[in-house]
């Protein structure tokens, strides 16, 4: 997936970089972003429910 860009980096004087760790880090950052997006969607939904039914108990809301 990164082969076209690795050659450019290596020949530009960045041979000390660990491409595998950078690749794994980018996967982790992407996964964390997706998890945060889902958490924001759930929080927004919970807020809408709380606004429509203010007397709802926290256990019911969760």
Describe the structure.
The chain is mainly α and 62 residues long. The chain has three helices and no strands. The chain is rod-shaped.
* Main sheet makeup: none
* Percent of residues in beta strands: under 5%
Low-confidence stretches: none
- Please give the radius of gyration in angstroms: 22 Å
What is shown here, in short?
This protein is mainly alpha-helical and 62 residues long.
List keywords for this structure.
single chain, 62 residues, mainly alpha, 0% strand
Summarize the topology.
Blueprint: H1 3-11, H2 19-52, H3 58-61
